[in-house]
Amino acid sequence: MIRIGINGAAGRMGQRVIALAATDGTFKIVAAIETEKHSQIGCDAGETAGITNIDVPITADWKQKIDVMIDFSTPKSTEMLIQRCINNGIALVIATTGITPSQHDKLRVAGTQIPVLYSPSMSFAVNMAMKLCQLTAQTFKDQNTDVEILEKHHRFKVDAPSGTAAKFASIISKEMGYNSFQYGRYGNIGERSRNEIGFHSVRIGDNPGEHTIMFGLLGETLEITVKASNRDCYAKGALAAAKFLFGKKPGFYTMDNVMDL
Fold it and tell me: Is 154 a catalytic residue?
């Protein structure tokens, strides 16, 4: 049985990880962590997640032995968590969005001491779409292709464009050599540049996540779209990542490793 902790346990994603892990016999939830002043401190993590009592209180710290920590929190909280996991030999799944380049570097360094898995999205479908975009970019790189990325998320999301959209752009940029990024357009901006990737972010209602990557040629367009109908796809991906990471040697892993892509 894999002993897991969830950092960001009272958040929308943390709750779904708890709810799904509680019904999976592979896992034993031993720690549910939140910020010190969070309103759910002291509450049972299962009840907060909308399931039965699991006898795991939400706390701001932990002393339990943890095999794998799943982090669905904030970049600031993630950064504080890294050294704690290193010190205690805890494998770390980072599913937090908005990770900065410097924090990404710290995760890679942490991977020299503990198993670390980071992905901008834990969704299997999103990661498959990324592979399809990589293949498309390789094929269309000499065709004067226009690339636009449209992403939609719920009104509570604090970063834009999404980390997943940025990852799509990074993959395409590497293959096509595009190095200019345009975040929305307004006014008389002139003709579209040839080495540009455009981003458009929509924040609406409770949309759990939707990305459309458009490859435009003269006379035809290819669109690759991936949509989440609820948050369980991200939670299931994080739990699959935890299963993959358990018992692994120190290293920096991604969902490509989990999915054997």
Answer: no
80-122 per-position pLDDT tens digit? 999 999 999 999 999 998 888 999 999 999 999 999 999 989 9
Write down the domain spans for the chain. 2-122+231-259, 124-227
Domain 124-227: what homologous superfamily?
Answer: Dihydrodipicolinate Reductase; domain 2 (3.30.360.10)
212-237 pLDDT tens trace: 999 999 999 999 999 999 999 999 99
Catalytic (active site) residue 157? yes
Question: CATH says 2-122+231-259 is which class?
Answer: alpha beta
* Catalytic, out of 152, 153, 200, 236: 153
Rounded to an integer, what distance in angstroms lies between the CA atom of residue 147 and that of residue 173? 10
The token duo for 75 is 């970049």
Question: Are the C-beta atoms of residues 231 and 208 closer than 8 Å to each other?
Answer: yes
